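User: Hello! I'm new to structural biology and keep hearing that structure can be predicted from sequence alone. Could you demonstrate with OstA-like protein? Please show me the input and the output so I can see what each looks like.

Assistant: Of course. The first part below is the input, the amino acid sequence of OstA-like protein. The second part is the output, the predicted structure written as tokens.
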Amino acid sequence: MLTRLTHAGVAFATTVVIYQIYVLLAVPLLEPNRPANATELSEIDPTGGKPRVPFHKHREMLATYFPPDHWTLQEPPKSFDNGQAMILVDDYHPSEDGQVRVQKCVLLFFPHERVLGEDPPRDAVILEAPHGAVLQLDEGFHAGFKGVGRMQWARLEGDIVVRSDMQEPGSQDDLILKTRDLKMNQDLIHTDAEVEMRLGPHWGRGRVLEIRLVAIERGFSSAAGPAIGGIDTLEIVHDVSAELAIGETALLRDKTQEAPPVQVSSNGRFKFDFSTNVASFVDQVRLEQKYSNGARNRLNCEELNLYMATQDETVALGVANYSSTTLAGRARTLTKLLPGTVEAHGTDLKPVELTAETHSASARCGLLRLELGPQRVTFSSQDEIELKYEGSEIHAPLVQYQMPPKDSGHRIGTLLAAGNGWFKTAPSSPHRVELRWTDGINLRHIQGKPVLTVRGRPRLSAVGGRLWADELEMVLRERVADGTEDDLLPADIAPERMTASGHVDIDSSQLSGKINKMKIDVQYLPIDLKLGSASEGGTSNPLLVGGANGSERAYRIDGDTLDVGVIVRDAQPQISSLDVRGDLEFREESNHSTAAQPMVVRGKELQIRNAETPEAKISLRGEPATINAAGMSIEAVELQVNRGTSAANIDAPGQLQIPIQRDLQGQLLAQPESLQVTWRGGMNLENDRVTFHGNVIARTSTGQLNTERLVVVLSSPIQFDGTSQASQTQLTQLECWEGVSAQFVQRDAAGITSIHKMKLESIRANQVTGEIAGIGPGLIESVHLTTGQMPGAPATPFADVTPSANFAAVATGSTPQRLRYLRVEFLRGVEGNLNKRIVSVVGDVRTVYGPVDSWEQTLPTQLQGSPAPDTVYIECQRLQVAQSPAARLQRDPRVGSVELMAEGDVIIEGLAGGQGTFTARAHRAKYDQQKTKFFLEGNGVRPAMLIRQKFIGAPYDEQSFKSLEYNQTTDEWKATGVGRGQFSGFPSK
């Protein structure tokens, strides 16, 4: 609309200039000192002023422009021709008072040079004044124009018509202008009549025409003619209106291809300033298009300016060398004017308002500036402008957009938005976006690529969240014109790189965090290149390690820099790489489940490669770096993780914490706690199996385990792919290799109740099934509080030798407590089931059990001299400790009765109360604490033996028997297969 208006303004201004110049006989009268052509003066009789030769030399040319009955073709007219213009008059009548009356006159102006022998140019501009003209000269008129005074005023009477076929065949650019009764002096050309002009399909009209002239100083005093050097301004004062056909030059093309004309009107003047080549409409200027469907496009402003210019702002005028300040020069200049700039001005109370209903677009600003040459449009205002398009809108003090140069290959030009502003998409858009800034936006081309920069703490808000930064920069990619990238890129313009710098703050349902700089690189892959998918172990999540549905997961990243690589195939983006540096924290959790354990990563550098595939690799470095997932925590200087296989590898010292519900002895804990594992060598995680090596230490609140190689089997594989786990990962099995030692301490409210130690070559303990197995040589050592012997009670050589005894309950009872020491040495190994309360040690077993005076005191496993009171020594090939089946039915927590059985070359030594020492030899020895029964038996080949010595140096009493059963409660003995020997006090049963 504005483009066509500018074209029409140029044509109108050109026409008016030509009209006023030649209607007033500008060439011969206003420039009389120009040498006249001989052909011009030869037709004038110096004595009578009448043609001497009635030959019509211009008939052939004039027949091109006039009908056969036109007066110029009836009789040869008087003609004045300077090559650029021709004036034809039928006659003139000078008077003594200095007036010259012309009966009829015609002016022909030729914008382009006429060539003899060729057809007359069709673009000649023709002015007809059929009612003649009157000129007033200050010194009168002399025949032959050899003495013409200065013009004081002139008047063209009656109807005046200016017309031209212009350059194009047909009527689409034909010109016609009509007015009447034109008056002129040295300063002003004026008419109160209506002025009407039509240029092809365009027309305009108004009332009261004023053309102001510029006087010039003559080079010498004898110069004749009026002192007019050119035109200053042209104005149409009242009732200004126009209709312009838009066609294909519309600023906003209609989607239906309908192009109705534009109606232009104003309450004020139309003005053309010839010194600056500016045409202006003022006072409530209105432009309007009306469509057949009722839609309207409107522009309202207080002032509309049209700026015109030539290609090089200068005009070569040929041999005549007329100055562009003269009327003739100005006419030639105006014919070469091209559309320049359009400006629409508003005020604070009445801003410029542009409404395009056909495009759901509107603008509101103080100034609208359209530069047609560079194809640049600018909207500005002291406060802010408002632009809307299909529901999207932008606000800023200044917005400027320039179309890309023709044939540049660019699909987008340059954009500038200065000052505090904002942009948002339509509320109905499925991808709503809002962008705010305080400094401005700049879209420019750098190395052939569009680069969009947003400064002034921009805030980007989308459907899922917001992003803040000190500056945003986005490198864009444009589809090539040959169509080879139509399937590659999702749109004509697509992002290739985005950089957010300075205090970047991300807050969304899927991603949040604070970083100093973020960069996202986008790579577009051909549609036939297959990517990883969720079903194949890949991810469609927006970042790092999502499950099957990215919206189900939430991520938070804090660090210094964040680099993200994105690949796009078939318009579907996927994260392919991620780099985070600085003091970073990465957190991933479910958006819906509050019970699911989040994955938390901390360190100095996080690197992810092939994130869109099942083989995604995660590398983490730190001082140290940590990963927390499913209740488990891994800490090391460097960590390598394979997401798809849930494998992790550490070739450096580190630490792991994992939740446990049982301690390392297999006992249920009062409340869950963590097992802490440290190592000096490395760690390897494969699904549910974690292997540590190099000075491995496993700690709980009750003790620690040392080994060279520790294998931990978990209740479920550790997931690094972001999928939710229904419960915490638990410890199910421990394996220790290449030497193991352990120490466990049990406490109650009063303090320590027991200290247990163990050494083995290897051991395996399953906390689910309770099974344990170990390889010796090894030892088990225990110091614990237990109930002391009551006076008069019988000896209980194996009492309280049980790991399940409730020492806390015993300690709080009324029975006095004392420390007891147990040490078991063996060569082959250990086996059993902790759930069934059965533990066995095998191979040259040596055991000592007895009281001690401190937690640090120990007892040797081999008897040295006489045994101490309540101390028992046992040697055998297999020693089993099991909870009594009857004891499991007891509700008293202080009851921890056991069955203890020694097998294979059993030797038991100790004190027999006040009867000295005893030594028992048997194949099998058994003690049931619940039944208070003691049992010895042979193996069928060698009988059991019981040997006593009342005091040192006394003779030994020994007795053999097949089996011996003793009930402590009833003090009853029962023996079978009694052999030789005499045992003092032995019952004769």
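User: So the tokens describe the shape?

Assistant: Right, they're a compact way of writing down the 3D structure. Reading them back into a model, for example: The mean pLDDT is 77.
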